[in-house]
Specification:
The structure is a single chain. The protein is mainly beta and 713 residues long. The chain has 6 domains: 4-70 and 77-99, no CATH class; 108-235, Immunoglobulins (Immunoglobulin-like, Sandwich); 242-332, Sandwich (Immunoglobulin-like), CATH 2.60.40; 343-444, Immunoglobulin-like (Sandwich), CATH 2.60.40; 457-542, Immunoglobulin-like (Sandwich); 545-688. 10% of the residues lie in helices and 35% in strands. It contains 10 helices and 41 strands. Strands 18, 19, 20, 22, 23 and 24 form a 6-stranded antiparallel β-sheet that branches. Strands 1-5-4-7-8 form a 5-stranded antiparallel β-sheet. A hairpin with an 8-residue loop joins strand 33 and strand 34 (564-571). Helix 3 (29-35) packs across helix 4. Residues 347-444 form the SaeA third Fn3-like domain. Residues 453-540 form the SaeA fourth Fn3-like domain. Residues 147-231 form the SaeA first Fn3-like domain.
Length: 713
């Protein structure tokens, strides 16, 4: 019997497809199945059953023309009788088909009573090979039309054009015997070419025979020898089918009749895309007994379709099969079970980030994965809930995402990936099992995504360094660590963790890094329920800073030394191997600005390596002899002869830089903080030029911390 749900599904079949099915001259499962789209082929048997239950669907006449509205001068025409629905409204007609009266081809008025003794005795010798044949079909097998019993319709072609023609219909269960119109059960005489016989309740099969009598008049027809129109064996569909289901066991019984040799039972999913009597669905013989069957299914929460097909055995040993029964459906009940993810993690793919998960299938129901931006209410996970509660709790809102995966075999592992929603920093991944109008929600897994830092840089300021970067999306904190260059994570020192507010208030991360170079490690992270999610760390290298200091002191000429300026250069805080080169630059009116690319009156003057000495070779590039010490006492010394000094003005020691002074190398600076500004006055030059025979006076170094005129200002 076609269920209400199946009728609703049939109503959604495209109209042109239904028209094609309605136009079939030979209705079979294969012919209906061939016209249906792939995703609707599971409806082939219900459509066939519906058409066979209600043949009016095949014989409906077109709708009559609508009656025009009467004009004021005309009287309304009598309302015509309701015409059958047209094929333009097939969906509604299929839904209402069970209530439409069948339009019968058999006319009972053509049946008449006749005493067989009035007919001439049959003289045998029927020509079976030349008999045109008889066709049959079943009507109202499901009993939809309560005014009519299930029946067999026999049909044949008119045998001859004689003035008088009538037919004799007989039946027998003695299949294989020679046909005979007299010794078999007499059913009827008729003038028509159709006959209906109620399906007998106590027979598994019948052979129907149709004989014709004909003549120029009634008398000649009565004495004519009967001729065989055709014989047809009809195996009746199984009746009295009753199905039950419980604890995963489908049990069925039927009305067993004499003549049944065996019963074929087919069980399949109601949405299977194959005919219900496909061999793959047939139960093994050990599941089927003479009057019942039992089938154990591991599935729960599904609907199964069941059809039965009887077998009879011909006297010659041949097994013959009848028509399958109408499709019966049975629901396999099941209890919803909560499922939990085995594993959930984020993966990066060429097409974007994804959420990967694995889970074992529940006993029953369809499996869904929900992605939400907030954690679902814990109340949802306590017990089974109405499916509509998912919407009431906001899980089915447009901003959230659900992925259906259908039925998974019980305890079968499903490993899948779904796309991480675009622009989401946090995702709650929730397993949900649905069965009918109910759902079971599993525990959610919170996942955070924190972007890495890819634009960090270290800026050098006087006395400190400032690390700046764009705040990483999704991070609540950034952990800052420092480590010696080239060292491992075990050598790291945690500076502190910064919030975005603290970072923006300070304009960056202020650090005091080692002049020799260090690595700064930045790790964005976010905490949820005291569990951190960390992005990949970013390491920014600080190459270091070599800071050089210098002092200058006037040297008065004596008998053993020349007059000039003693120059000391040292490193601030550490001994420097392979130090850079220096130059002494003079400008008469202002402080020199660069050791190379001189301009605006700047000029380099020569200096000799070592202390004051006569005739020491002076060069304009000061190259250290070995390492430079970390204090003034261990400084490298040079001497600037007075002859190299052009006159009153400004002296400054500067670095001789390459075209790319830093690159990835250690930064280098030299400062004037140990001088008083580098101003050289004329009277100081005069002191340096005095004759060595005159006892020198102490030069004026007042106001300086260090020896010489270049003290701290």
């Amino acid at each position: 019997m076609v269920t209400v749900e199946q009728r609703e599904q049939i109503a959604q079949v495209p109209r042109d497809v239904l028209r094609s099915i309605m136009g079939l001259t030979h209705l079979t499962y294969d012919s209906v199945d061939a016209l249906l789209p792939e995703d609707l082929r599971y409806l082939a048997q219900p459509i066939l059953d519906l058409l066979l239950e209600d043949e009016s669907l095949l014989t409906a006449e077109p709708e009559s023309e609508p009656t025009p509205e009467p004009t004021p001068r005309e009287e309304a025409a009598p309302e015509p009788e309701q015409a059958p629905a047209s094929k333009s409204n097939l969906g509604e007609r299929f839904k209402l088909a069970a209530t439409v009266a069948a339009k019968r081809r058999f006319n009972p008025d053509q049946v008449f009573e006749l005493d067989p003794s009035l007919l001439s005795p049959y003289q045998w010798g029927a020509d079976e090979a030349e008999a045109p044949g008889v066709e049959y079909q079943f009507l109202n097998l499901a009993g939809t039309d309560t005014d009519q019993a299930p029946r067999v319709e026999l049909a044949w072609s008119r045998y001859s054009d004689d003035p008088v023609v009538f037919y004799r219909i007989v039946a027998t269960t003695n299949i294989g015997a020679t046909p005979n119109p007299e010794i078999n059960e007499q059913l009827a005489f008729t003038e028509g070419v159709y006959f209906e016989d109620p399906v007998p309740s106590n027979e598994a099969f019948r052979e129907y025979q149709v004989w014709v009598y004909r003549g120029a008049d009634d008398a000649s027809a009565l004495v004519s020898q009967p001729e065989l129109v055709g014989r047809v064996l009809v195996i009746f569909p199984v009746r009295g089918i009753k199905l039950t289901a419980g604890e995963g066991v489908i049990a069925g019984t039927w009305t067993a009749l004499p003549g049944h040799h065996h019963m074929r039972v087919f069980v399949s999913d109601v949405k299977a895309n194959a005919r219900p009597d496909s061999s793959e669905f047939q139960l093994r013989e050990d599941f089927v007994q003479p009057m019942r069957f039992e089938y154990i299914t591991p599935e729960r929460g599904v609907t199964k379709r069941v059809v039965l097909q009887p077998e009879i055995k011909h006297p010659d040993g041949t097994v013959l099969v009848g028509q399958i029964s109408p499709v019966h459906t049975v629901d396999i009940k099941g209890e919803l079970a909560q499922v939990e993810f085995n594993d959930v993690y984020r993966v990066e793919t060429e097409n974007g980030p994804m959420v990967a998960f694995s889970v074992y299938g529940p006993p029953v129901g369809d499996f869904h994965v929900y992605l939400t931006q907030t954690r679902p209410s814990p109340d949802l996970t306590v017990d089974d809930i109405p499916a509509e509660a998912l919407s009431q709790e906001g899980m089915d809102d447009g901003g959230n995402i659900s992925h259906p995966f259908g039925v998974i075999g019980h305890n079968e592992e499903l490993a899948q990936k779904v796309y991480w929603p675009q622009d989401w920093d946090e995702v709650f991944v929730t397993p949900v099992v649905k069965l009918g109008n109910y759902a079971r929600v599993g525990p959610s897994v919170a996942m955070q995504h924190v972007d890495t830092i890819d634009d960090a840089e270290i800026r050098e300021f006087v006395g400190y360094q400032l690390v700046t970067f764009g705040w990483p999306r999704g991070a609540s904190l950034v952990r800052v660590q420092r480590q010696p260059q080239g060292s491992t994570a075990e050598d790291r020192e945690i500076v502190r963790e910064f919030t975005e507010e603290e970072y923006r208030e300070q304009g960056g991360v202020k650090l005091f890094l080692d002049n020799g170079g260090e690595d700064v490690v930045l790790t964005p992270q976010k905490y949820y329920e005291n569990k951190p999610t960390r992005a990949e760390e970013t390491i920014v290298s600080y190459p270091g800073l070599w800071k050089f200091l210098y002092s200058m002191c006037i040297e008065v000429p004596t008998a053993t030394q020349a007059g000039g300026i003693s120059l000391r250069i040292w490193s601030d805080g550490r001994e420097i191997m392979n130090p850079p080169n220096f130059s002494v630059v003079f400008n008469p009116t202002r402080k020199p600005l660069a050791g190379t690319a001189l301009s605006h009156g700047d000029r380099t003057i020569g200096a000799a390596l070592g202390g004051p000495a006569f005739d020491a070779p002076a060069g304009t590039v000061l190259i250290a002899n070995g390492d430079i010490g970390s204090s003034e006492e261990t400084a490298q010394r040079w001497f600037i002869p007075v002859e190299q000094i052009p006159g009153q003005g400004f002296l400054r020691v500067l670095l001789v830089m390459d075209e790319d002074p830093y690159g990835d190398q250690i930064r280098q600076i030299i400062t004037d903080e140990c001088t008083n500004g580098g101003i050289l006055r004329q009277h100081q030059i005069d002191w340096m030029r005095r004759s060595p025979q005159v006892e020198p006076q102490q030069p004026d170094n007042s106001g300086t911390r260090r020896r010489g005129f270049f003290g701290r200002g």
